[in-house]
Amino acid sequence: LQWVPPLSPRRCAVSGGGGEEEVQFSSFEELASALAGLSGDPLEEFGGRVVHYRGNPGAKVVVVGEAPGATEDELGVPYVGRAGKLLDQILTAAGFDVEEDVYFTNVVKRRPPENRDPTAAELRYYSPLLLEELRLVDPWIVVCTGRFSMRTLLDVKQGITKVRGQWFPLPGLPEIHGMPMFHPSYLLRNPSRKAGSPKSLTWVDAQEIRRKFQECEAAHQVRAQHPQAAVELSQGVGPTENEAGAAPDHDEWMELDCPCSDIGGEPTSAASPPITPALATEQPGLDEQTASLDGDGEYPNSS
Predict the structure, then answer these.
(1) How far is the CA of 267 from the CAs of 48, 181, 197, 264, 284, in angstroms?
(2) Which residues partner with 168 through β-bridges?
(3) Which of 41, 30, 43, 92 is nearest to 63 (CA)?
(4) What are the C-alpha distances in Å from 205 to residues 163, 278, 299?
(5) CA 56 → CA 53, 97, 238, distances in Å?
(6) What is the spatial distance between Cα 247 and Cα 263, in angstroms, rounded to a whole number?
(7) pTM over 0.85, yes/no
(8) Strand (E) positions, the chain?
(9) Average pLDDT over residues 132-148
């Protein structure tokens, strides 16, 4: 199977023995099979393996990175390097089961040589595959870690420090909520926990992702149980978040198994509850767990 330049978003052309044919995958399994046999793509010549996904294809939260690193290329699975482990810890602290609740993938499906940045041509080539992947997984939320993922999916031109933590629709998939977030390798190189530091801001973002997830979950339950109420909710006249059980209150957040005073110190957003000193002393710090991590195999320019 050989990919040729895409004809339109979500649809790709393939060439085989019978010539070119425009296709749209009918299932996630069909896409996965095609990616497993991918050839003719821009990075094939460098010898790296195709790295597709990790996690649950039925998850409602998708994390999209930029490209595989050295560890990912070796194992054939995304986000399993040192920065990936830190990201797992952050998401777990925010209340997610990373094996069931989250799906991890990248824009570029092979490792660029020497971990260089993906080129514009490479991003254009692989991005239609990613859009089809997202259509088939059908998440509520997409978290874009790093600037290449953000610019590819969200069409955001500003720097990630200016827009991280904000919600954007995905062009072509407007029903999905997209958020830019610092790449975890950037956090490993910026270990400060002071308010306003990258770690602090990332913890605020992780809590906002959790809040949005619960909001979407509540809306989904309303739609399933009360179709007419779902219409009213979409029009802003349905039950409030508290009535729908969407957003946890301050005390519920504090009961989460959350070592994230060490991810980020006190959040800087008024919408996010502060981390108490008691919680900080009762829970192990992520800095201690990741002190030896240097982000090897991840992208140094992801911020």
Answers:
(1) 40, 15, 10, 7, 18
(2) 178
(3) 92
(4) 11, 22, 20
(5) 9, 10, 31
(6) 22
(7) no
(8) 2-8, 11-16, 19-23, 54-55, 61-65, 102-106, 141-145, 168-170, 173-181
(9) 96
